[in-house]
Amino acid sequence: MTEKPLPTIDPSSRPFWEAAKAHRLAIQHCEDCGAYIFYPRTTCTTCSSDRLEWTESSGEGFVYSYTISYRPAGTGFKEDVPYVVAVIELKEGPRLLSNIVTDDLESVTIGSEVRVVFDDVTDEITLPKFILTKR
What we know:
CATH 2.40.50.840; mainly beta; 6% helix; 1 helix
């Protein structure tokens, strides 16, 4: 059991979490305008269409922004400090907030290329995280 907060799975996000559990990164794609969307929603953020399909992301992207946390964001994170919290821009376009898994905090820079890895936190929850592929 983890002391860290876990995501709440609702009908809109269930396909995302089911894909993550299978170690796949799924994002939504609008069938009308072609936009890729994250976080899970019921309508497209570009054209307001409700014709969204789930598609597998490449899982590749780059660091759009980041910070290194030297103070835990709660008692469940004490063992993890310091850790990198980053906004990742996927090759498909959407951005998501995640962690970069690295022992070399100084190697993380804006623009660093990353790819997804998966952290099986519980039997039900798997979190997508990222590792550096190029600096």
